[in-house]
From TrEMBL:
One of its GO terms (cellular component) is plasma membrane. It is found in: Cell inner membrane; Cell membrane. Na(+)/H(+) antiporter that extrudes sodium in exchange for external protons. This is Na+/H+ antiporter. Belongs to the monovalent cation:proton antiporter 1 (CPA1) transporter (TC 2.A.36) family. NCBIfam families: a_cpa1. Keywords: Antiport, Cell inner membrane, Cell membrane, Ion transport, Membrane, Sodium, Sodium transport, Transmembrane, Transmembrane helix, Transport. It comes from Pseudomonas nicosulfuronedens. GO terms for molecular function: potassium:proton antiporter activity; sodium:proton antiporter activity.
Length: 553
């Protein structure tokens, strides 16, 4: 029962920190780490022992799957060159440069362990950056950071696993590691794509047989990242990349017919799970923090000196990672602009942009987050010979410190660097969405024009007129979508006002229906099953009305 109580407490605190974030002007991860540390205070005494293998399996696959699912594929393809260079070449550059610096700075950390620490520090967290920047980042840069965070999660953790294996066995071959990395990476991607495709075929077969219950399909999709990870690991390829590939494929599997309710439920469930998993990871970091501090400082005769030295290690490692990232991004943008000018190859650079400032923004935007934390907490406790993993507590402490410092630095530095930059414009996105609505409305009208309304045997003229009126009213609603968007700001404001008034009236009517439904249940005029069915329909209608009004923003 203690485990159940602990899980319930963690979930309750995760929800509480989300509310606290509305009042406290700090990034949510920092609040969650502080809450976890408070729970570990002796007076509360909450303690969670972590099995590294179980931790990696439980948290990494769903988080990477959700990242792959959420990533806009069109933007990923447009910005593929900067994304891939950041996600793979920069990761390798960070592992080599950061690993050498960490070993030279702290000789007690062996070479393999130093490279493992640098590898686990290479993944970035675009969600944390987005929350800090509050949609003020240039859109192209935000897409690059999102794509990079998706891919370097996988590449960084694969490199981390190779470094850990070298630390465990004491042997390492660059040629063998390079070939193994290629095979493991390609095999993991292929495994993830195949498993996601197979699940799509199974779901399609179920739908054709009428087995389209949303809950069943959502459960299957919840198991997908874990299945992909386990099968890939059993085959000796990357389970991490399998989870990413399965998530990216899920965008297409989502287009199965007659699955509207499944998609709505699936997105809601995954949003909740992603929030809960991210929150629990940072809470667990806070819970481990007091023990980590004790373990790295308990041998020191002078606690103040040891604490200062540890803080210096964290700041030095963070500074080197920041400089490596800044130098790489600045050089890439300079080179990409030259390539576009000389050979016309589109590499993602833009002449005339403030390259120095954007490079600094991108460097600070390399915030470390949940994936780094989940990876470093999975460092084994023991080597193969039964001895303790070298400097495990210090490695976890440095990674934890870098996560905290990167969050704080981004919170302070990004708003300063973003001053004066034009805010991200949504005009192009709005025009694209309006164009899609017009085209789909035209298709619906075309279908209705050729549709013969069903006539009941013996129907009179009045019934036929009512059927024709129904068809005409529906076509009128779709023709409204074909009206060109008003060009002037005044016309747009008028249209927006009418849309909001229509929305408000519809929502008031739906809420009146809901209140009447509650009254009938309180007075036992209907049972719970009837109330749930009608309430679900009213909620769906309100969600549709609310989303429809957003098209005139």
């Amino acid at each position: 029962m203690q485990t159940v109580y602990t899980v319930l407490i963690l979930l309750l605190v995760v929800g509480g920190t989300r509310l606290a974030a509305q009042l406290i002007p700090l990034p949510l991860p920092l609040i969650q780490i502080a809450a976890g540390a408070a729970l570990a205070w002796p007076s509360l005494g909450l303690h969670v022992g972590l099995d590294p293998e179980l931790f990696m399996f439980l948290f990494i696959p769903p988080l990477l799957f959700a990242d792959g699912w959420r990533m806009p594929k069109g933007e990923f393809w447009k910005m593929r060159w900067p994304i891939l260079t950041l996600a793979f070449a920069l990761v390798l550059f960070t592992v080599l440069g950061g690993g050498v610096f960490i070993h030279l700075l702290i000789p007690e950390i062996p070479w393999a362990a130093a490279f493992a620490l640098a590898a686990v520090l290479s993944p970035t967290d675009a969600l944390a950056v987005s929350a800090i920047a509050q949609d003020r980042l240039p859109r192209r840069l935000m897409h690059v950071l999102q794509g990079e965070a998706l891919m370097n999660d996988a590449s960084g953790l694969v490199a981390f696993k190779f470094a850990i294996a070298a630390a465990m066995t004491g042997t390492f071959s660059l040629m063998d590691a390079s070939l193994s990395f290629l095979l493991v990476a390609v095999g993991g991607l292929a495994c993830g794509v195949f498993i996601s495709w197979l699940l799509g075929r199974i779901r399609g077969w179920m739908i054709r047989r009428g087995w389209d219950d949303p809950a069943t399909h959502v459960v299957l999709m919840l198991l997908l990242p874990f299945a992909g990870y386990m099968i890939a690991e059993e085959l000796g390829v990357s389970g991490i990349l399998a989870a990413v590939a399965a998530g990216m494929m899920q965008s297409w599997a989502d287009l199965l017919p007659r699955q509207t309710n499944t998609r709505l439920l699936n997105r809601s469930v995954w949003s909740m799970l992603e929030f809960a998993f991210n929150g629990v990871v940072f809470l667990l970091l806070g819970l481990q923090l007091p023990d980590i501090l004790k373990s790295v400082a308990h041998h020191a005769d002078d606690v103040m000196w040891r604490s200062s030295l540890l803080l210096f290690y964290v700041l030095a490692v963070f500074a080197v990672l920041l400089l490596l990232r800044f130098g790489w991004v600045w050089c890439y943008w300079k080179v990409s602009v030259r390539f576009e000018q000389w050979w016309g190859i589109e590499l993602g650079g833009r002449s005339g942009e403030p390259v120095l400032r954007l490079s600094a923004i991108s460097a600070l935007g390399g915030v470390r987050g949940a994936v780094t934390l989940a990876g470093v907490l999975s460092v084994p406790l023991l080597l193969l010979d039964g001895s303790a993993f070298p400097q495990r507590d210090l490695i976890i402490f440095i990674a934890t410190g870098v996560i905290l410092v990167s969050l704080i630095a981004a919170t302070i530095g990004l708003p300063i660097l973003l001053r004066g930059l034009p805010a991200a414009s949504n005009d192009q996105r709005e025009r694209e969405v309006q164009s899609v609505w017009r085209k789909t409305a035209a298709a619906a009208i075309h279908m209705l024009e050729g549709e013969e309304m069903p006539a009941r045997d013996g129907a009179d003229a009045d019934e036929a007129a009512r059927m024709a009126e129904l068809k005409a009213r529906l076509m009128a609603e779709y023709r409204h979508e074909l009206d060109p968007a008003p060009d002037s700001q005044e016309a747009r404001e008028r249209a927006r006002g009418l849309e909001l008034a229509d929305q408000a009236l519809r929502i008031k009517a739906l809420r009146a229906q809901r209140l009447e439904l509650y009254r009938m249940r309180r007075e036992h005029e209907i049972d719970d099953e009837t109330m749930r069915e009608v309430l679900g329909e009213l909620d769906s209608q309100e969600a549709w009305v609310t989303s429809k009004a957003g098209r005139w923003v």
